[in-house]
Design brief:
InterPro entries: Glutathione-S-Trfase_C-like, Glutathione-S-Trfase_C_sf, Glutathione_S-Trfase, Glutathione_S-Trfase_N, GST_C, GST_superfamily, Thioredoxin-like_sf. The protein is an alpha/beta fold and 357 residues long. Helix content is 55%, strand content 11%.
Amino acid sequence: MPNYKLTYFDSRGRAELARVLFALAGQDFEDFRIQRQDWPALKASTPFGQLPLLEIDGKIFAESVAIVTFLAKQFGFYGKTTLESLAIDQVVFLVQDAVNAAVRALIESPEDQRALLGKQFLEEELPKYVTLFEKLLVESGTGYFVGHSLTLADLYVWDLIGTLESRINIQGIVSGHPSLVTLFNKIDNTDRIKTYVASRPAIIMPKYKLTYFDARGRAELARVLFALAGQDFEDVRIQMQDWPALKATTPFGQLPLLEVDIKVFAESVAIVTYLAKEFGLYGKNNLESLAIDQVVCLTQDALSAAVRAMFESPEDKRVLIGQKFLEEEIPKYLAMFEKLLVQNGTGYFVGDSVSYK
């Protein structure tokens, strides 16, 4: 038998269906899980700069659909004839259409439109796909999408619905579609799948608590990063009059603070840098991270200049120094930001997508 190694992040995502197929076939494999912070260093060594990867006797393959299609063929879940394989592919690509629609609405949409587009997807597009799945299942007449036994088509739809229910925390997506409900119950109660699901690693997300004053200030960028990532967090806002009593209990006598699973960290730049790394907004490699840090530090220079002029200058000179800052120093920094943005040529400071600077 071939030796299999599946590489993906320590999450379910695009590798979970491959893991299910290994479990269903009773096939041993190496389930290699990497941490998000290690990905930038590994990315360039992969065929297409993405995961999952399937290694078979030392030969590496990418693309999740290609991987699960191969495994389904190997393990007998890809139909008994070429016509059945065609019918399976039809369902697989319909699921991919649904996945792409979900990604466009819930992940890739502009932040200011995400709530509206997400609502439209959940209320309009997703029900359309679920209705199509139910129709195909009823038309088959066997209780399975294709043939008289479990195939990749059944598993693909089951995995899609399970992923959506867990990722966006909604239940009952297929309620009102009895054929789908019956099929999913059969899959859930298949012995090998039941055993795998019960024993698979729990996906434990960190618990975040951000503490700052009831203002934007040095915590606002962290709040924006949480929103951009769709990550829940506890947004604790304290009143100014309560600060003197709390100050001595903080690490450095300052805010903001980020609590990650009870461990407390300070320093706003350190906090947003960590969150940007966690949420994939810190560049695709070390060179991009360096370019991001360059912009961040330049921004800190501008902020320090503003603080010196507006807050730390002698009171009798503050108006004059503040005016000089606004008329001379701010334009200088804005010109540098514009220059960096133009030089990159993509519409972003670094790379071709949003990063945290």
